[in-house]
Specification:
Blueprint lengths: L24 E3 L2 H11 L8 E4 L4 E4 L9 H8 L21 H10 L4 E11 L7 E13 L17 E3 L11 H13 L11 E6 L2 E6 H23 L10 E5 L17 H20 L3 H8 L2 E5 L16 H14 L3 E2 L11 E4 L2 E8 L17 H8 L14 E3 L38 E3 L7 H9 L26 H14 L5 E3 L9 E2 L2 E2 L1 E4 L6 E4 L3 E6 L2 E10 L5 E4 L1 H14 L2 H16 L8 E2 H7 L13 E5 L4 E6 L2 E5 L6 E5 L7 H12 L3 H17 L10
Helix pairs in contact: 1-3, 3-4, 5-6, 6-8, 11-12, 11-13, 11-16, 12-16, 13-15
Length: 717
């Protein structure tokens, strides 16, 4: 009879279980355990024997699927001696499961973890010096796998990936079905048929597709809340001494390093930002709980740290809003009554003694692997391996420790949207919204695949088929109330629209425009998209019917429904073009317009900025940037000698161009934290007095009144 092979993980070194082996938890959502049982129903694995190399005994799987436990899931899924590539060794199952079933097993185990209070002998060793503790320390460790984008497209990150060609021969057979079934099995909801607006084009091991950052955020929110729940439960077993404040929880940066090695570099910054947004969502879910539930959820956790999370892997530029998301995390941690430990760059096991005169017991996750047990390859070549080398983590191995208590954990983060407010705890963002609502910095449009490249046929047919030929649209205005007199296009409006498109358009793919509240900018049931054409390289705004491009510093309006003899979209001019540009200006998110125009001003002034402050009005005059007399007299421009980027100082605020040259970062002169209101005021003190911007908004206001536009504005046709 065939048998599943369980290999002993290379990091394993234990000789005997500790006396408190039954105090460790195997945490598994009820829904995941149910789906595991369903997956194995009818399988020849049920009732079969297997050799357990950890207990050195022959054991048997239950004959009935309903008798399976989380321990069986851990043993079956994490049965490789080591795995550093993400490629699954499927022959360990002796054809008792299909490859897709094996991959689903490893997706299911991602939603589980093991946790307990372990003995730590040392810290460091992975990219740092290994240091021994004079006296071994007691710490809480959660053995939890991160999202993975390595060799096999059926690793957990694959559920969040939309291939350009679902039938690509390089994808595993039945890939779409695996994505659908695995997503439903571990997240409890249907996988969206198409990616959200917050997506970007990516190449995963040579396959082009789209990575959905909203799904990444939701997956991380679930991962965080599952780890948090495990730590809180274990913290209740701690017997704190008189000089110990509580637990300092370090949630490690899993899934962003080795596990993301298959992804093209262009998405790494947004991937890491999506992770932070997921953590923020989870914390806001905790904050929205009723008081008693909230305190029970927190347990003895008194401090939160996100190690190595203040920068992007490989020192890549931070995406728009990254620092603001971190600020919001710190704020919500404070509202929960906890200490915010920031984003330190020391070892996971580094002690937290005498921190602001407080001593903490450390708790941390371990960046585990869904294919191999705790410690994986051993040694000091990864975080997981180094932690196993520095501590007695074998007791967290479910195959070795049969005495673990099976405990249920949440399938996902607590809901925020419908939660009633409680005791000074407020949630500034709902689970459905990706941008940071309280931020006054630039909100980058959320990415979706370009219709003409990845899903043109689907997008065009679905959006145009719902609109009758007689309906009006953004580039096809309503016939009633339309003025027939020709209105000239204001050069100020054209300039502002060009600047917005040029600075806001993502470098790859297309995006749906967002308001600051997270809603998509929509006209007559059609989204307005912004992006860079994969064919021409032009940046532009688009609908199913039209595209407004920046071509050689000019605005060009193209009619997608009408082609010339060469098969090219025909250019639109005259009154139709004028009205189109005005109407798009009425719908651009105003705060983003102000911020992007300020980015443009800093770009223009960079060449003349010096280390010594120069009055902003004088610098602008030199570059023919016209200012209103209301421009603050104390506003100045300087060059940051460290970043070599220009910054404007207005009052107590510094507004600096980021390294990417497409974003703003703000900080106070006196080092105090800036509120969203402070940032909003600083931007508008400058932008409200920029003549081109001011005149553009005046022209738009006049256009709206003259053309009697409905409150919602006409939509795209």
């Amino acid at each position: 009879m065939p048998q599943v092979k369980i290999e002993a993980v290379q990091a394993f070194k234990a000789n005997s279980l500790p006396k408190n082996a039954n105090q460790f938890h195997l945490n598994c959502p009820d829904e995941v355990l149910k789906n595991f049982k369903t997956l194995l129903t009818g399988s020849s694995i049920l009732g079969s024997k297997f050799y357990n190399p950890y207990t050195k005994k022959t054991e048997r799987f239950p004959k009935k699927a309903e008798e399976l436990t989380g321990r069986h899931l851990q043993m079956l899924a994490r049965n490789e001696s080591s795995n550093v590539t993400g490629a699954m060794i499927t022959n360990l199952y002796e054809r008792m499961l299909s490859d897709n079933q094996i991959a689903q097993l490893r997706a299911l185990v991602k939603a589980t973890n093991t946790a307990g209070i372990v003995t730590v002998h040392a810290y460091g060793g992975y990219y740092s010096k290994n240091k021994k503790f004079p006296i071994p320390q007691q710490m809480i460790v959660v053995d939890q796998a991160g999202l993975q984008w390595q060799a096999d497209f059926r690793n957990t990150g694959g559920m969040l990936f939309y291939p350009k060609d679902p039938n690509d021969k390089h994808l595993p057979a039945g890939y779409a079905a695996w994505q659908r079934d695995s997503f439903k099995a571990i997240y409890g909801s249907d996988r969206p048929i198409s990616p959200s607006g917050n997506s970007n084009v990516v190449h995963w091991n040579g396959i082009e597709g789209v990575l959905d950052f909203d799904l990444v955020s939701n997956a991380i929110a679930a991962e965080f809340i599952q780890a948090w729940s495990a730590v809180a439960a274990q913290s209740n077993q701690l017997k704190l001494t008189a000089n110990e404040t509580g637990v300092a929880f370090k949630f490690l940066k899993a899934g962003m390093g080795f596990f993301a090695s298959g992804l093209s570099t262009n998405v790494k910054p947004d991937l890491e930002h999506a992770r932070l947004k997921g953590i923020l969502k989870a914390l806001q879910g905790i904050a929205a709980l009723p008081e008693a539930e909230r305190q029970a959820a927190i347990g003895k956790i008194k401090r939160l740290e996100l190690p190595f999370s203040g920068s992007i892997q490989g020192n890549l530029p931070k995406p728009l809003g990254f620092d603001d998301t971190l600020t919001q995390i710190g704020e919500i941690v404070g509202k929960l009554g906890l200490e915010w430990g920031g984003t330190p760059s020391d070892d996971a096991f580094a002690p937290r003694q005498n921190i602001n005169n407080k001593n903490y017991v450390v708790a941390c996750t371990n960046c585990g692997d869904p294919h191999a047990m705790t410690g994986n390859e051993g040694g000091y070549s990864s975080v997981d391996a180094a932690m196993a080398s520095n501590a007695s983590l074998d007791v967290l191995n479910a195959a070795y420790n049969p005495h673990m208590q099976l405990r249920t954990i949440p399938l996902s983060a607590p809901p925020i949207k419908n939660a009633a407010p409680h005791a000074e705890i407020t949630s500034s963002i709902s689970l459905e919204k990706a941008p940071d609502e309280s931020s006054n910095e630039i909100i980058e449009p959320q990415l979706i695949p370009e219709s003409s490249a990845l899903n043109k046929a689907t997008a065009a047919s679905s959006q145009t088929s719902s609109t009758s030929s007689s309906s009006h649209g953004f580039f096809n205005p309503p016939q009633t109330g339309r003025h027939e007199s020709v209105m000239p296009l204001s050069p100020h409006v054209a300039e502002v629209v060009k600047i917005f498109i040029t600075n806001a358009a993502p470098q790859l793919g297309w995006a749906r425009l967002l308001e600051l509240d997270g809603s998509f900018v929509k006209l007559d049931d059609h989204y307005i998209e912004i992006g860079t054409s994969n064919t021409s390289g032009n940046k532009g705004l688009a609908t199913p019917s039209y595209e407004l491009d920046v071509v050689d510093s000019a605005l060009v309006l193209l009619d997608k429904k009408n082609k010339d003899l060469a098969g090219q979209w025909q250019e639109v001019s005259g009154q139709d073009k004028t009205e189109a540009v005005y109407k798009i200006m009425t719908k651009l998110p105003k705060e983003s317009v102000h911020a992007y125009f300020l980015v443009h001003v800093l770009q223009q002034l960079k060449g003349i900025a010096d280390k010594s402050p120069t009055p902003l009005v004088n610098a602008m005059e030199t570059m023919d940037i016209f200012a209103d007399p209301g421009m603050p007299a104390d506003a100045s421009i300087s060059l940051n000698p460290k970043s070599q980027q220009p910054f404007i100082k207005v009052g107590n605020v510094k507004i600096e161009l980021t390294a990417s040259g497409r974003d703003l970062k703000m900080e106070s002169v006196d080092g105090k934290a800036l509120s969203p209101a402070d940032k909003h005021k600083a931007v508008h003190e400058i932008s409200d007095n920029l003549m081109v911007l001011k005149e553009a908004f005046s022209a738009v206001k006049f256009f709206e009144s003259e053309n009697e536009l409905p409150a919602t504005g006409p939509g795209f046709g």
